[in-house]
C-alpha cells in the first residue's frame, strides 16, 4: 500500500498533476471562478480576479525544462488555425464596423490563446498518465461547489436552471453553459476511466457514481447543446466499442454468481438511496419533464402548431435568437449575396451561431478557414474515438463533440471558450503515433530482429 502511494506521489507525478491542474484552470476554470467570486464573496464582480485565476493556471503549466524541450503537435490543425487567425486579425485591423474601434481586449484574448498553445508544446506527453483522474477530481469539486452555491443562495429556487448567480437585483443572472460543460467533461472522463480494463473495482464504482452525479447536474443546467452532445457521445461510444462478440461475452459474464451478487447489492443500494432521497429524484424528474416540454414547444412553434392551452406555441428566447439569425442569413442570401464574398466586417453582426457568424462577418475566407479547421478536428476526433489510442486523446475527442455541436447552437468563432480547447486538440489529437508505448492503450510491439 505504501509503495503504491509513493509511486503515485513521486515528484515526477506531482509535476504532471500540476500541469494538468493548470490546463483545467484555463479551459474549465469558470465554475470555480464564479464560486470564489460570487458564493464565497472573495471578489464579487471582479475581472481582475478572473485574470489572476487564469494567470495562475498559466503559471502552473510552466515546466522546469521550459524552452529547453518542445514537443510535436498536429501541424495540419495548427496550419488551418493560423490561416483563420490571419483572416480575423486582418479584418480586425482593416475591415471592421464603425462601432468596433478598440481591439485591445480582443488582442489580449488572442495573446491568451497563443500563450496557452505555446505552453502546451512545452508540456510533456507524459501527462497522459494522470490527465483523466485529475479531470475527474477537478470537475467533481466544481460540481460540488455548484451544489453548495445553490443550497446557500436564497435567490435560487428549485426549477431554475442550475448556475451560480451574479449581479444585483433584477439584473442578477447566471451562466449555466459553463456548468454544463464541466458536468459533461466529468461524464466523459468518468466513462473513460470506468471502462478502462486496468481500473479496479472500487475505483470503477466511484467513477460510475460520479458519472451519474454529473448527469444529474447536466439535467439541472438544461442546456440543449450539452444534452445533444451527450446523446451523440453515447451513440458514438456504442458504435465504436460494442461488437456482437462483446455483447455475447457481457451476457455470459452477467450470469455468473459474482455478477448476480453484485447486481443484487447494487439494486438494494439504489432502492435504499431512492427511499432516502425521494425528493431529489422528484426534482430531477421535474427538471427532465420541464426540459422536454420546453423543447417540444419550440418544435411546435417551428411547425406552427398550438400547445395544450390552444395558444400558439412560441420559441423561447435562446431558440428565438437563433431563428432570427437564420432569417438574417436568408435575407442576405436572397438580396445581398455579395456580402457572402467578403463579409460585413469584424464582429459586425452577433448571430450566436459561430459557423454562420464566420460567414456573415468574414465572408468566404473566414468561413472556409474556420470550417476547414472545425471539420478536420471532427475527422481526427472520430478516428480517435474509433481507435482509442490513449486516454487523453480519447477524452479530447469525445469532448470535441460538444464543441462541434456548439458551433451550430451558441457562441462566436472568436471566443477563448472555443479556442483554448481547440489548442488542446492541436497539441494532442492525431499524433498518438509519436507517443512512447507506455502511454498508449494498445502499444504496438515491434518484432525482435
UniProtKB/TrEMBL annotation:
Keywords: Membrane, Transmembrane, Transmembrane helix
Residue intervals passing through the bilayer: 16-36, 42-64, 76-95, 107-123, 130-151, 178-195, 202-220, 226-242, 254-274, 359-380, 392-410
Domain of life the protein comes from: Bacteria
Protein name per its UniProtKB record: O-antigen ligase-like membrane protein
InterPro entries: 4pyrrol_Methylase_sf
Entry GO MF terms: methyltransferase activity
Amino acid at each position: 500500500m505504501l509503495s503504491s502511494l509513493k509511486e503515485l506521489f513521486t515528484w515526477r507525478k506531482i509535476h504532471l498533476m500540476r500541469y494538468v491542474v493548470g490546463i483545467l484552470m484555463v479551459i474549465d476554470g469558470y465554475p470555480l471562478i464564479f464560486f470564489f467570486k460570487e458564493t464565497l464573496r472573495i471578489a464579487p464582480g471582479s475581472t481582475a480576479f478572473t485574470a489572476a485565476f487564469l494567470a495562475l493556471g498559466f503559471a502552473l503549466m510552466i515546466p522546469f525544462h521550459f524552452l529547453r524541450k518542445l514537443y510535436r503537435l498536429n501541424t495540419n490543425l495548427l496550419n488551418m488555425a493560423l490561416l483563420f487567425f490571419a483572416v480575423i486579425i486582418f479584418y480586425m485591423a482593416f475591415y471592421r464596423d464603425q462601432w468596433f474601434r478598440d481591439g485591445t481586449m480582443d488582442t489580449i484574448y488572442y495573446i491568451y490563446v497563443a500563450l496557452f498553445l505555446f505552453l502546451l508544446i512545452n508540456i510533456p506527453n507524459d501527462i497522459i498518465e494522470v490527465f483523466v483522474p485529475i479531470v475527474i477530481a477537478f470537475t467533481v469539486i466544481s460540481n460540488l461547489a455548484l451544489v453548495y452555491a445553490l443550497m446557500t443562495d436564497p435567490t435560487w429556487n428549485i426549477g431554475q436552471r442550475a448556475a451560480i448567480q451574479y449581479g444585483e437585483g433584477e439584473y442578477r443572472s447566471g451562466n449555466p453553459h459553463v456548468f454544463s460543460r464541466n458536468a459533461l467533461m466529468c461524464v466523459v472522463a468518468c466513462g473513460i476511466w470506468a471502462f478502462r480494463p486496468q481500473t479496479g473495482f472500487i475505483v470503477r464504482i466511484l467513477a460510475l457514481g460520479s458519472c451519474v452525479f454529473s448527469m444529474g447536474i447536466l439535467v439541472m443546467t438544461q442546456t440543449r447543446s450539452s444534452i445533444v452532445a451527450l446523446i451523440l457521445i453515447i451513440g458514438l461510444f456504442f458504435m465504436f466499442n460494442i461488437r456482437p462478440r462483446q455483447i455475447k461475452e457481457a451476457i455470459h459474464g452477467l450470469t455468473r454468481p459474482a455478477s448476480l451478487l453484485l447486481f443484487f447489492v447494487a439494486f438494494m443500494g439504489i432502492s435504499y438511496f431512492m427511499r432516502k432521497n425521494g425528493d431529489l429524484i422528484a426534482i430531477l424528474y421535474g427538471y427532465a419533464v420541464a426540459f422536454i416540454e420546453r423543447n417540444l414547444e419550440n418544435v411546435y412553434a417551428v411547425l406552427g402548431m398550438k400547445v395544450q392551452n390552444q395558444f400558439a406555441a412560441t420559441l423561447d428566447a435562446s431558440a428565438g435568437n437563433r431563428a432570427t439569425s437564420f432569417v438574417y442569413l436568408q435575407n442576405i442570401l436572397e438580396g445581398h449575396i455579395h456580402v457572402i464574398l467578403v463579409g460585413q466586417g469584424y464582429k459586425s453582426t452577433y448571430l450566436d451561431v459561430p459557423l454562420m457568424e464566420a460567414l456573415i462577418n468574414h465572408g468566404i475566407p473566414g468561413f472556409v478557414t474556420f470550417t476547414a479547421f472545425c471539420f478536420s478536428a471532427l475527422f481526427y476526433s472520430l478516428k480517435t474515438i474509433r481507435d482509442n489510442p490513449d486516454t487523453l486523446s480519447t477524452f479530447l475527442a469525445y469532448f470535441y463533440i460538444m464543441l462541434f455541436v456548439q458551433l451550430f447552437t451558441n457562441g462566436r468563432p472568436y471566443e477563448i471558450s472555443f479556442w483554448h480547447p481547440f489548442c488542446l486538440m492541436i497539441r494532442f489529437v492525431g499524433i498518438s503515433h509519436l507517443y512512447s508505448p507506455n502511454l498508449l492503450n494498445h502499444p504496438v510491439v515491434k518484432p525482435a530482429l
